[in-house]
Amino acid sequence: MAEGRIIEGRGGLYTVRDTGGNRHVLRAKNRFRRKNITPLVGDLVVFTPTRGEEHGWISEILPRSSQSIRPPVANITQLVITLATEPPPDLMLADKLLLFAFGQQIVPLIVVNKVDMGPPLALEIKSAYDLAGVPVLPLSAQTGEGLGVLKASMAGHITCFAGQSGVGKSTLIMALTGIALETGEISWKIKRGKQTTRHISLIEQGGLQVLDTPGFSMLDLPEDLEPEEISLRYPDFTPYSAQCRFSACLHDQEPDCAVDKAARNGQIDPGRLARYRELLNHGQEKRRARYD
Questions:
Q1: Least confident span in 48-57, 147-156, 207-216
Q2: Among 13, 105, 159, 267, which is disulfide-ready with 262 (CB 3.0 to 4.6 Å)?
Q3: Residues 195-200: contacts with CB within 8 Å, 24+ apart?
Q4: From the CB of residue 180, how many other CB atoms can be counted at a distance below 10 Å?
Q5: CA pair distance 211, 177, nearest whole angstrom
Q6: Mean local confidence (pLDDT), 246-258
Q7: Is the Cβ–Cβ distance between 119 and 245 less than 8 Å?
Q8: Are strands 107-113 and 136-138 parallel, antiparallel or unpaired?
Q9: CB of 145 closer than 8 Å to CB of 138
Q10: 116 secondary structure, DSSP code
């Protein structure tokens, strides 16, 4: 038996890198399928190596520190939420990704790529998310601005880049690792990125561990997240929520809501609060649908 980490999975075959740096192409034992368990890229596993023409097998998946359904990855410790000047930033997606990160104790970082095309966006994003305690790093994969700071922040982490298609995630990974990846351009007709990454792989290069994941533009709330719990994942609300008139305040039009007052006073970004209320209402609708 040996131990290693899954760095790629395709068509029921999993590439595992062992502790000595060797690669093994393995299958997963049938009992995982019977238990409805799917090995994920990033998983630490126990396996039997290939012998001759006999396939090696993954026999055990070690406990996960974190898990994402979309993209399906495990054990990430840092989430780099990637925005850009084009396509227009989807801040609702960014907020959902932060909910996921805060819920699994994953370190979040927001990067604003393509600042060579217009720096004001980075300043606006930084102003909004500084209040939530989330670092915002302006950079450019084309000019190299900010890449050194990003690379230093990734040391010691298994990092997942997440965000809309077309924001330059693969280009950033190439600039950081020197490994060529397929990239796509923006469709200027609809100002949306073209999907280029087709599968998930864990890249280990130059001391970095980076997950190259398919781009996506939609992310749902975690199924186990109740509406009352959503605000607990907003660190920018925390200093004010205890001052609300009602201890169970949802910060959604209740009288004497200190979070609402803080947003009006510029202590919380008003856009963050408005998007939170959209997510809260969506969560309440989902719960009502479960019991109707």
A1: 207-216
A2: 267
A3: 195/165, 196/165, 196/170, 197/169, 197/170, 199/8, 199/9, 199/10, 200/8, 200/9, 200/41, 200/71, 200/72, 200/73
A4: 8
A5: 12
A6: 95
A7: no
A8: parallel
A9: yes
A10: G
Written as six digits, the tokens of 258 are 């200190």
Which carries the bigger pLDDT value, residue 118 or residue 166? 166
For the chain, list the domains and their CATH numbers.
Answer: 2-63 (2.40.50.140), 68-212 (3.40.50.300), 227-291 (1.10.40.50)
What is the band of 182 on the pLDDT scale with cuts at 50, 70, 90? Answer: low
One-letter identity of residue 132: A
Rounded to whole angstroms, how far apart are CA atoms 132 and 93? 16
Q: What is the token pair recorded at 274? A: 């408005």
258-288 pLDDT, tens digit each: 999 999 999 999 999 999 999 999 999 988 8
Residue 13 has phi, psi (to 5 degrees) of -110, 140
pLDDT at 272: 96
